[in-house]
From TrEMBL:
One of its GO terms (cellular component) is cytoplasm. Keywords: Isomerase. It comes from the Eukaryota. This is Ribose-5-phosphate isomerase. Coiled coil: none annotated. GO terms for molecular function: ribose-5-phosphate isomerase activity. InterPro entries: NagB/RpiA_transferase-like, Ribose5P_isomerase_typA_subgr, Ribose5P_isomerase_type_A. It comes from Rhynchophorus ferrugineus. It catalyses: aldehydo-D-ribose 5-phosphate = D-ribulose 5-phosphate.
Length: 234
């Protein structure tokens, strides 16, 4: 039996081994699974002397790149990336994703959109048929602090469910993202919604900065499984 941490590592190592080539400019996602991908990248730089450039998607991811002595860049210098490797909170059968459990959705979506391909790495708990089936913490929506109440009300009125302001731990008040915004977690939504339509609608609302719905963006997902295998979904 493979633990959840073991499963994350399996997926991350296999994705890095299968997809990363010397000369690549790589978007580095955020979260706990990406830690293993960066670990593997550092091993390959050390052992195979591959030459790579890494663009982070959050403060955490930037720190990871620096800590592992990888070459740090940004979208001003490298605006076209070969690949982005990132985790997800949930992946449905069409490779649509919920992301932003760690509040990094905005930079993650920007970096993924500048990459030729987005490869997802995850453990078996993220593998789902429908969004919301496994992940119960809600779809993160990054909003301007000024607009969180009107957006919450509008969302609940139009699409039902409940949008909850994400609160900080060990700090009084809300979570403030790397970009100075708040996060609403939209829970108990109707799982049969057309997520492409919902996403296109939400991102037009004044005050919505970005949604954690990554629709038609991922090319492949690697899931570390309980039996120690890796399931690849294309
Ligand atoms: O904001 C966080 C990101 O979207 C993460 O990629 C996502 O939450 C998955 O993180 P983890 O690998 O820790 O499950």
């Amino acid at each position: 039996m493979c633990s959840v941490e073991g499963a994350k590592k399996l997926a991350a190592y296999q994705a890095v081994d299968n997809h990363i080539k010397s000369g690549y400019k790589i978007g580095i996602g955020s979260g706990s699974t990406v830690v293993y991908a960066v670990d593997r990248l550092a091993q390959r730089v050390e052992n195979e002397n591959i030459n790579i450039i890494c663009v982070p998607t959050s403060f955490q991811s930037r720190q990871l790149i620096l800590k592992n002595n990888l070459t740090l860049s940004d979208l001003e210098v490298a605006s076209q990336l070969d690949i982005c490797i990132d985790g997800a909170d949930e992946v449905d059968c069409n490779l649509n994703l919920i992301k932003g459990g760690g509040g990094c959705l905005l930079q993650e979506k920007i970096v993924a959109s500048c990459s030729k391909e987005l490869i997802v790495i995850a453990d078996y708990t993220k593998n789902s048929s429908l969004l919301g089936q496994q992940y119960k913490k809600g779809i993160p929506i990054e909003v301007s602090p000024l607009a969180y109440v009107p957006i919450k009300k509008r969302l609940e009125q139009l699409y039902k469910g409940e949008a909850v302001l994400r609160m900080a731990v060990n700090k009084a008040g809300p979570v403030v993202t790397d970009n100075g915004n708040f996060v609403l977690d939209w829970k108990n939504f109707d799982q049969s919604l057309d997520w492409n339509k919902v996403n296109l609608d939400l991102i037009q609302w004044p005050g919505v900065i970005e949604t954690g719905l990554f629709i038609n963006m991922a090319k492949k997902a690697y899931f570390g499984m309980q039996d120690g295998s890796v399931k690849v979904q294309s």
